Amino acid sequence: xxxxxxxxxxxxxxxxxxxxxxxxxxxxxxxxxxxxxxxxxxxxxxxxxxxxxxxxxxxxxxxxxxxxxxxxxxxxxxxxxxxxxxxxxxxxxxxxxxxxxxxxxxxxxxxxxxxxxxxxxxxxxxxxxxxxxxxxxxxxxxxxxxxxxxxxxxxxxxxxxxxxxxxxxxxxxxxxxxxxxxxxxxxxxxxx
Length: 192
Description:
alpha/beta; Rossmann fold; six-stranded mixed beta sheet; 6 strands; 33% helix; 18% strand
């Protein structure tokens, strides 16, 4: 199975922790998605999957792919809770103790008023496992940075603690091929 993994284009809330908040693409993000559409001109997908959040849906529409698309709750970004919409500097100023706990607690960390990292990793990993039980040859997935880095690690058999080794760029595509249960990263962070 070929998996094309697209991170949505730049949103209007760039530079902030925006997970579960439903924000739209910026003008630059729309241009990123339009440019990326050239990558998919000659590709036919068995199915497409997309986070239901607006920035992903808009990215998918601008990719102009002629395929059925399912909106998938499991592909939503992590819920940053009280940190939603804040910059790193604002979080550091308002939540210094919780920010320090983020690194020490690793997967057990729960964003204040938000989602636990372990629960997020499980949600995403289980969805990718279920996807692989289908008889698809080629699929497109439009989602968020955290979802894609978690999915890539899971598919490649890399511990989720190493997820930040991957940094999916906004408006870029990566490709993983899975054959007989073995995943291979074909390319990463390509743009149109």
